[in-house]
C-alpha cells in the first residue's frame, strides 16, 4: 500500500531542492510545477483509457486501428497528442536544437522549455475547458532543471493512485507554495487559471465547488 504522506513529502522535497538551486522565485516556479503534475496525471489517465479502448478495437490489414481523439471524447476523457505525452517529453534527445523539432505552428524549437510549452498548447487545443489555462512559461527554466522535474514526477506510484490522490498531492504542493510565496512576496492569491486547473484535476461532475484554502474563496458552478 502506498504511503501518500511519504510520497507527497518526497516529491515536494525533490522539487523544492531544485528550485533552491535555481534563480527562480516561488512565484515563478509555482504554476509551471503544478502544470507538470497535471500533465503527469493526464498522461496516466490517458494510458488507462487507451487500454480500455484497445480491448475491443477492430483490426484492419492485420493490425489494430490506432486510437483517435474521438474515441477519448466518447469516454469523456482527454486525448493527448504524441508530442504532449509524458513519455515523449522524457525521452527527447539531449541536443534538442539539433533534433529538428517544430511546434504546432511549424516553428522550430530549440529548448525543452519550448517543447513543454508546445505540449501544453496541444492539450489546450483538445479541450475548451482548458483554453488559456495551462502554464506556458517553461522557457524560464533551464533544460537541466526542467528535465529533472519531469523525471521527479515520473514516479511510478502516481500510476497506482486515482484522481482523488493526485488532487491531494496537487493541493499539498499548492499549500506549500502558498507558504513560500507569502514568505517571499508577502502576498498570495489564486488566479482564475489555477482555480480551473484544480477543477480539471478533481474532475467534479456536477454541483457547486467551494474552496477556502490559502485565504481565498471560490464558488464554481460545475456543469
- Mean pLDDT score: 81
The radius of gyration over CA amounts to: 18 Å
What is the N-to-C order of secondary-structure elements (H for helix, E for strand)?
HHEEHHHHHHEE
Strand content: 5-15%
| Inertia-based shape | globular
Helix content: 40-55%
Low-pLDDT parts are: 209-223
Q: How are the strands ordered across the major sheet?
A: 1-2
Number of helices: 8
Q: How many extended strands?
A: 4
Q: Determine the N-to-C terminus distance.
A: 34 Å
What can be said about this structure in brief?
With 223 residues, the chain is mainly α. Helix content is 52%, strand content 6%.
Question: What would you say this structure looks like, in words?
Answer:
The protein is mainly α and 223 residues long. It is 52% helix and 6% strand. The strands form 2 sheets. Strands 1-2 form a two-stranded antiparallel sheet. Strand 3 (207-211) and strand 4 (218-222) form a beta hairpin. Helix 1 runs antiparallel to helix 6 (143-152), helix 1 packs parallel to helix 7 and helix 2 runs antiparallel to helix 7 (163-185). The two termini are 34 Å apart. Residues 209-223 have low confidence and may be disordered.
Amino acid at each position: 500500500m502506498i504511503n501518500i504522506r511519504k510520497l507527497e513529502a518526497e516529491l515536494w522535497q525533490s522539487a523544492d531542492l531544485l528550485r533552491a538551486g535555481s534563480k527562480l522565485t516561488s512565484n515563478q516556479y509555482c504554476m509551471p510545477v503544478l502544470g507538470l503534475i497535471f500533465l503527469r496525471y493526464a498522461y496516466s489517465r490517458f494510458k488507462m483509457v487507451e487500454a480500455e479502448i484497445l480491448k475491443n478495437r477492430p483490426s484492419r490489414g492485420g493490425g489494430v486501428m490506432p486510437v483517435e481523439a474521438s474515441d477519448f471524447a466518447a469516454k469523456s476523457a482527454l486525448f493527448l497528442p504524441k508530442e504532449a505525452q509524458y513519455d515523449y517529453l522524457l525521452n527527447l534527445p539531449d541536443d534538442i536544437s539539433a533534433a529538428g523539432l517544430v511546434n504546432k505552428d511549424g516553428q522550430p524549437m530549440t529548448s525543452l522549455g519550448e517543447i513543454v510549452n508546445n505540449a501544453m498548447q496541444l492539450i489546450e487545443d483538445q479541450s475548451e475547458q482548458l483554453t488559456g489555462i495551462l502554464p506556458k512559461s517553461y522557457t524560464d527554466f533551464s533544460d537541466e532543471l526542467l528535465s529533472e522535474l519531469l523525471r521527479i514526477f515520473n514516479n511510478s506510484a502516481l500510476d497506482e493512485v486515482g484522481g482523488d490522490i493526485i488532487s491531494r498531492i496537487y493541493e499539498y504542493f499548492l499549500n506549500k507554495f502558498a507558504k513560500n510565496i507569502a514568505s517571499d512576496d508577502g502576498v498570495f492569491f489564486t488566479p482564475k487559471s489555477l482555480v480551473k486547473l484544480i477543477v480539471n484535476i478533481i474532475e467534479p461532475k456536477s454541483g457547486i465547488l467551494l474552496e477556502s484554502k490559502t485565504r481565498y474563496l471560490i464558488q464554481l458552478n460545475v456543469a
